[in-house]
Structure prediction request, 168 residues.
Amino acid sequence: MSRYSVQLLTSDHIRKEFSCKHPSLENYIVKYVTQDVKRKLAACYVVTNESNEVIGYYTLSTDSIESDVVSEAIKKKMPPGYKNLPATLLGRLAVTNDFQSKGIGQLLLVDALQRSYANSLIIASMAVIVDPIDLNAESFYLKYGFIKLPDSGKMFIAMKTLAYLTKK
Prediction:
């Protein structure tokens, strides 16, 4: 796995052949990501093969969690009056069909979580949120400690958890 590295998307990366199980994730990286990056709606990080073709990617942006949907245990630790709690959105994570089950998804997720935690030390964020595209994605995030948010389909992992994991 060490032969792959995660980089910020540039115009040098080849995206046109990206193919995965979800057309919406394919269309995003091929057609829309450049606009979102230019508009500062998302930051996109990629892994490429030896031909500089994107074989996996993820996006990060800011978001929030409504305080009403977090558990009572978390709510008790928050100051009263916060309707929304600052968070980082891991908006998309995808790996091409040819590189499924080769550790690229794990590499991307770990990089996204490390980057999110580092950024939370500069710009407040209490958690990383994901909105799994299907049950396979949900299972993937559950393996890494994400917790379901009630009634939304979204999941999160607290920055305090990431802080603990980075010290291990």
